[in-house]
Design a protein that fits this description.
The structure is a single chain. This protein has about 150 residues and is mostly helical. It has two domains: about 90 residues, no CATH class; about 60 residues, no CATH class. The chain is built from seven helices and no strands. The protein is flat. It starts with 6 loop residues before the first helix and ends with a helix. The model has no long low-confidence stretch (mean pLDDT about 90).
């Protein structure tokens, strides 16, 4: 059943099934439990009136889609960082990107707390600036992963 050519296909199918089950569980659970049949009816026939339609389309489906996108982005960014550093244990803390994001976020909350709604953009700017500074500090006839780690 599991030979070398069909094993990757089975692994992908198992993880795809688990992802679909997790999405359905996320949509079904909350303050109001919604049955699987109601979820399928609302998604396939989105013009059905009712409270379940509003809950699914306005709250739970956007929440689930954003969670999926965030997870995918974290996976891609982690894989890129590990590939660039040539280190399977590399993470944003290793090179100081997380520290830059935290510094700008805390600075915003302490110095200008009335602009707390700009916390995410400020953290993004801090992480980008930290990455740029680390890149500049590690430059010497090119960039090596070891120098990036040491500069971070």
């Amino acid at each position: 059943m599991f030979n070398k050519t069909t094993r990757p296909v089975w692994i992908i199918l198992i993880f795809l099934t688990a992802a679909i089950a997790a999405c359905l569980f996320s949509i079904a659970t909350g303050a109001v439990m919604i049955s699987l049949r109601d979820i399928v009816d609302v998604i396939l026939h989105h013009d059905l009136p009712g409270m379940n339609r509003d809950i699914i389309w306005n709250i739970r489906l956007p929440r689930t889609l954003v969670a999926m996108l965030v997870g995918a982005n974290l996976a891609v960014s982690g894989a890129l960082l590990q590939g660039v550093m040539r280190n399977p244990l590399a993470d944003p803390h290793l090179i100081g990107v997380s520290s830059g994001a935290g510094l700008f976020g805390i600075f915003l909350l302490v110095v200008v707390p009335q602009y707390d709604h700009f916390l995410t953009p400020a953290a993004f700017i801090g992480a980008t600036l930290a990455a740029f500074i680390i890149y500049l500090l590690s430059w010497k006839d090119g960039v090596s992963p070891l120098r990036i780690v040491l500069a971070g």
